[in-house]
Specification:
single chain; elongated; 2 strands; two-stranded antiparallel ribbon; mainly alpha
């Protein structure tokens, strides 16, 4: 899931309903339980930040819901439903997706879907990052030469940390 996407916004709305209607906790209380600032909880609820899959268990505990149900809602908010063989597939049928989300939400918060608008979910394409070519020794030396004394000291610390992690 990526931040700022319809999927993140949908999951954020789900988190908001679970927090305010089901467990009736403040953002600060949830933040304390998951070990983060209340601002992050707010950003997740607005879809500005996305909950990553490894963090679902912590969020489920804080929201007093089962990890299974929250994980199911996390997948559904991305348009992913279970196929007959148990694998996750992207579902292009909007009505089926809404029905699945409603069924799961009703187990947690009866009529909780009344407060949620399901946006059009699109399949997310993977981000392809291009690795840039590394700098030549001469180019690196030129860049370092242009730094001030304090900047060189900071760069030296970075380089030493990289070398230390290699060993």
């Amino acid at each position: 899931m990526r931040r700022g996407t319809p999927s993140a916004e949908l999951f954020g709305m789900i988190i908001f309903v679970l927090r305010t209607v089901k467990c009736k906790k403040s953002m600060k209380q949830i933040g304390d339980l998951i070990g983060t600032a209340p601002a992050l909880v707010s950003q997740v609820e607005k879809g500005q930040r996305a909950v990553k899959e490894p963090k679902i268990e912590v969020w489920a505990d804080a929201l007093e819901v089962s990890e299974y149900n929250l994980r199911e809602l996390w997948f559904l908010s991305q348009g992913l439903i279970r196929s007959l063989n148990g694998k996750r597939i992207f579902n292009i049928h909007y009505d089926v997706l809404i029905a699945q989300i409603t069924m799961t939400m009703d187990r947690l918060v009866p009529n909780g879907m009344n407060q949620i608008q399901v946006p059009k979910i699109e399949k997310i394409t993977p981000i392809k990052r291009q690795r840039s070519n590394s700098l030549s020794k001469t180019e690196l030396e030129r860049l370092i030469y242009e730094l001030s004394g304090s900047e060189r000291t900071r760069v030296q610390g970075y380089v030493e940390a990289i070398i230390e992690n290699r060993e």
